[in-house]
Amino acid sequence: MQPIRKHDENVTEEQSTTARATRMKPGERRGHILQMLAAMLEAPKNEKITTAALAARIGVSEAALYRHFASKAQMFEGLIEFIEQTLFGLINQIVAKEPNGVLQARAIALTLLNFSAKNPGMTRVLTCEALVGEHERLTERVNQLLERVEASLKQCLRLGLMDASNQNEPNAIPLPADYDPVVRASLLLSYIVGRWHRYARSGFARAPIEHADAQLRLILQ
What is 144-189 written as a DSSP string? Predict the structure, then answer.
Protein backbone atom coordinates (compact mmCIF):
# COMPACT_ATOMS: atom_id res chain seq x y z
CA MET A 1 0.00 0.00 0.00
CA GLN A 2 1.43 3.35 -1.03
CA PRO A 3 1.73 6.13 1.58
CA ILE A 4 -1.02 8.75 1.39
CA ARG A 5 0.46 12.18 0.70
CA LYS A 6 -1.16 15.15 2.39
CA HIS A 7 -1.16 17.21 -0.80
CA ASP A 8 -3.48 14.77 -2.62
CA GLU A 9 -6.65 16.74 -3.26
CA ASN A 10 -9.06 13.96 -2.31
CA VAL A 11 -7.38 13.06 0.98
CA THR A 12 -8.81 14.69 4.09
CA GLU A 13 -6.81 15.52 7.21
CA GLU A 14 -8.72 12.83 9.12
CA GLN A 15 -7.94 10.20 6.48
CA SER A 16 -4.28 11.15 6.54
CA THR A 17 -4.17 10.89 10.34
CA THR A 18 -5.89 7.50 10.23
CA ALA A 19 -3.48 6.26 7.58
CA ARG A 20 -0.49 7.29 9.70
CA ALA A 21 -2.00 5.50 12.70
CA THR A 22 -2.56 2.39 10.56
CA ARG A 23 1.10 2.30 9.54
CA MET A 24 2.28 2.41 13.16
CA LYS A 25 3.52 -0.70 14.93
CA PRO A 26 1.47 -1.86 17.95
CA GLY A 27 3.92 -0.40 20.49
CA GLU A 28 4.04 2.88 18.59
CA ARG A 29 0.25 3.06 18.48
CA ARG A 30 0.00 2.65 22.24
CA GLY A 31 2.59 5.39 22.72
CA HIS A 32 0.77 7.70 20.32
CA ILE A 33 -2.51 7.20 22.17
CA LEU A 34 -0.84 8.05 25.48
CA GLN A 35 0.81 11.13 23.96
CA MET A 36 -2.54 12.39 22.73
CA LEU A 37 -4.17 11.71 26.11
CA ALA A 38 -1.43 13.70 27.85
CA ALA A 39 -1.84 16.52 25.31
CA MET A 40 -5.60 16.69 25.94
CA LEU A 41 -4.92 16.98 29.68
CA GLU A 42 -2.97 20.18 28.97
CA ALA A 43 -6.17 22.09 28.16
CA PRO A 44 -6.50 25.05 30.60
CA LYS A 45 -9.98 23.88 31.62
CA ASN A 46 -9.92 20.63 33.57
CA GLU A 47 -12.64 18.86 31.62
CA LYS A 48 -13.26 15.12 31.84
CA ILE A 49 -11.80 13.33 28.84
CA THR A 50 -13.90 10.70 27.13
CA THR A 51 -12.67 7.91 24.90
CA ALA A 52 -14.89 9.32 22.14
CA ALA A 53 -13.10 12.68 22.34
CA LEU A 54 -9.70 10.98 22.44
CA ALA A 55 -10.54 8.82 19.43
CA ALA A 56 -11.75 11.88 17.52
CA ARG A 57 -8.54 13.75 18.37
CA ILE A 58 -6.42 10.89 17.04
CA GLY A 59 -8.70 10.32 14.04
CA VAL A 60 -9.67 6.72 14.77
CA SER A 61 -12.71 4.90 16.09
CA GLU A 62 -13.22 4.08 19.78
CA ALA A 63 -12.95 0.42 18.81
CA ALA A 64 -9.43 1.13 17.54
CA LEU A 65 -8.48 2.50 20.96
CA TYR A 66 -9.80 -0.59 22.70
CA ARG A 67 -7.61 -2.79 20.53
CA HIS A 68 -4.65 -1.37 22.41
CA PHE A 69 -6.13 -0.58 25.83
CA ALA A 70 -8.91 -2.53 27.52
CA SER A 71 -10.28 0.62 29.18
CA LYS A 72 -9.61 4.30 29.78
CA ALA A 73 -8.28 3.34 33.21
CA GLN A 74 -5.64 1.25 31.49
CA MET A 75 -4.65 4.29 29.41
CA PHE A 76 -4.14 6.31 32.58
CA GLU A 77 -2.14 3.42 34.02
CA GLY A 78 0.11 3.70 30.98
CA LEU A 79 0.70 7.38 31.73
CA ILE A 80 1.43 6.66 35.39
CA GLU A 81 3.88 3.94 34.39
CA PHE A 82 5.66 6.37 32.06
CA ILE A 83 5.85 9.00 34.81
CA GLU A 84 7.17 6.44 37.28
CA GLN A 85 9.86 5.11 34.97
CA THR A 86 10.96 8.59 33.95
CA LEU A 87 11.13 10.08 37.44
CA PHE A 88 12.90 7.18 39.10
CA GLY A 89 15.32 6.92 36.22
CA LEU A 90 16.24 10.57 36.85
CA ILE A 91 16.37 10.07 40.63
CA ASN A 92 18.78 7.15 40.21
CA GLN A 93 21.02 9.29 38.00
CA ILE A 94 21.09 12.07 40.61
CA VAL A 95 21.98 9.69 43.44
CA ALA A 96 24.75 8.12 41.34
CA LYS A 97 26.33 11.46 40.40
CA GLU A 98 25.89 13.63 43.54
CA PRO A 99 27.68 12.38 46.70
CA ASN A 100 26.09 14.83 49.15
CA GLY A 101 22.71 13.71 50.48
CA VAL A 102 21.23 17.18 50.99
CA LEU A 103 22.18 18.20 47.46
CA GLN A 104 20.71 14.94 46.19
CA ALA A 105 17.37 15.83 47.79
CA ARG A 106 17.53 19.36 46.36
CA ALA A 107 18.28 18.06 42.86
CA ILE A 108 15.43 15.54 43.10
CA ALA A 109 12.99 18.25 44.15
CA LEU A 110 14.05 20.50 41.26
CA THR A 111 13.75 17.56 38.86
CA LEU A 112 10.19 16.84 40.00
CA LEU A 113 9.22 20.49 39.59
CA ASN A 114 10.86 20.74 36.17
CA PHE A 115 9.13 17.54 35.02
CA SER A 116 5.83 19.13 35.95
CA ALA A 117 6.67 22.35 34.09
CA LYS A 118 7.55 20.40 30.93
CA ASN A 119 4.60 18.01 31.18
CA PRO A 120 1.49 19.98 32.23
CA GLY A 121 -0.93 17.20 31.35
CA MET A 122 0.96 14.69 33.46
CA THR A 123 0.91 17.15 36.34
CA ARG A 124 -2.85 16.64 36.46
CA VAL A 125 -2.22 12.91 36.77
CA LEU A 126 0.28 13.44 39.60
CA THR A 127 -2.20 15.62 41.49
CA CYS A 128 -4.97 13.08 40.71
CA GLU A 129 -7.17 15.85 39.28
CA ALA A 130 -7.37 13.94 36.01
CA LEU A 131 -8.33 10.78 37.89
CA VAL A 132 -11.49 12.09 39.55
CA GLY A 133 -14.32 9.68 38.71
CA GLU A 134 -11.89 7.08 37.35
CA HIS A 135 -11.04 3.72 38.94
CA GLU A 136 -9.72 4.08 42.50
CA ARG A 137 -6.71 1.90 41.74
CA LEU A 138 -5.27 4.80 39.71
CA THR A 139 -5.20 7.12 42.71
CA GLU A 140 -3.71 4.32 44.79
CA ARG A 141 -0.92 3.88 42.27
CA VAL A 142 -0.12 7.61 42.27
CA ASN A 143 -0.02 7.52 46.08
CA GLN A 144 2.39 4.59 45.92
CA LEU A 145 4.57 6.55 43.50
CA LEU A 146 4.67 9.50 45.92
CA GLU A 147 5.51 7.21 48.82
CA ARG A 148 8.48 5.91 46.84
CA VAL A 149 9.60 9.47 46.16
CA GLU A 150 9.36 10.30 49.87
CA ALA A 151 11.37 7.19 50.74
CA SER A 152 14.09 8.31 48.32
CA LEU A 153 14.15 11.77 49.87
CA LYS A 154 14.44 10.28 53.38
CA GLN A 155 17.38 8.17 52.29
CA CYS A 156 19.11 11.20 50.78
CA LEU A 157 18.61 13.34 53.87
CA ARG A 158 19.78 10.56 56.20
CA LEU A 159 22.96 10.45 54.16
CA GLY A 160 23.23 14.24 54.43
CA LEU A 161 22.87 14.03 58.21
CA MET A 162 25.58 11.37 58.41
CA ASP A 163 27.90 13.56 56.35
CA ALA A 164 27.18 16.56 58.58
CA SER A 165 28.13 14.60 61.70
CA ASN A 166 31.35 13.32 60.12
CA GLN A 167 34.13 15.80 60.82
CA ASN A 168 36.29 14.16 58.16
CA GLU A 169 33.75 14.81 55.40
CA PRO A 170 35.03 17.92 53.52
CA ASN A 171 31.90 18.46 51.43
CA ALA A 172 29.39 18.12 54.27
CA ILE A 173 26.65 20.73 54.62
CA PRO A 174 26.19 21.90 58.24
CA LEU A 175 22.77 20.95 59.64
CA PRO A 176 20.97 21.85 62.90
CA ALA A 177 21.44 19.49 65.86
CA ASP A 178 17.74 18.56 65.87
CA TYR A 179 17.65 17.87 62.11
CA ASP A 180 15.10 15.12 61.38
CA PRO A 181 15.35 13.60 57.86
CA VAL A 182 11.88 12.04 58.13
CA VAL A 183 10.20 15.36 58.96
CA ARG A 184 12.17 17.24 56.29
CA ALA A 185 11.40 14.65 53.61
CA SER A 186 7.68 14.83 54.42
CA LEU A 187 7.77 18.63 54.29
CA LEU A 188 9.70 18.57 51.02
CA LEU A 189 7.23 16.23 49.34
CA SER A 190 4.30 18.35 50.57
CA TYR A 191 6.00 21.41 49.06
CA ILE A 192 6.46 19.67 45.70
CA VAL A 193 2.88 18.39 45.54
CA GLY A 194 1.61 21.82 46.56
CA ARG A 195 3.55 23.38 43.71
CA TRP A 196 2.04 20.88 41.28
CA HIS A 197 -1.47 21.72 42.47
CA ARG A 198 -0.90 25.47 42.16
CA TYR A 199 0.49 25.00 38.65
CA ALA A 200 -2.56 23.01 37.57
CA ARG A 201 -5.10 25.30 39.26
CA SER A 202 -3.57 28.35 37.60
CA GLY A 203 -4.18 26.85 34.17
CA PHE A 204 -0.42 26.23 33.97
CA ALA A 205 0.34 29.93 34.37
CA ARG A 206 2.22 29.77 37.71
CA ALA A 207 5.49 27.97 37.04
CA PRO A 208 6.22 25.30 39.66
CA ILE A 209 9.91 26.21 39.65
CA GLU A 210 9.25 29.86 40.64
CA HIS A 211 11.45 30.86 43.64
CA ALA A 212 12.21 27.17 44.19
CA ASP A 213 15.93 27.64 44.88
CA ALA A 214 15.40 29.96 47.85
CA GLN A 215 12.47 27.97 49.21
CA LEU A 216 14.32 24.66 49.03
CA ARG A 217 17.21 26.12 51.06
CA LEU A 218 14.73 26.97 53.82
CA ILE A 219 13.22 23.48 53.76
CA LEU A 220 16.43 21.46 53.51
CA GLN A 221 18.80 23.40 55.77
Answer: HHHHHHHHHHHHHHHHHHHHHH-TT-TTPPP--TT--HHHHHHHHH
**The whole model's pTM is what?**
0.84
The verdict on 47 and 94 lying in the same domain is no
Judgement on whether residues 161 and 84 belong to the same structural domain of the protein:
yes
Element (H, E) at 42: none
- Whether 136 and 198 map to the same domain: the answer is yes
Summarised one tens digit per residue, pLDDT across range 47-99 is: 788 899 999 998 888 998 988 999 999 999 999 999 999 999 999 999 999 99
Closest CA to 29 of 20, 42, 38: 20
Q: Mean pLDDT for each consecutive 10-residue tract of the chain (221 residues)?
A: 36 44 66 92 80 90 90 94 97 96 97 97 95 93 98 96 79 87 97 97 94 94 83
As a whole number of angstroms, the distance between CA 93 and CA 202 comes to: 31
What is the amino acid identity at position 124? Answer: R
Under a CB-based contact definition with an 8 Å cutoff, are residues 184 and 176 in contact?
A: no
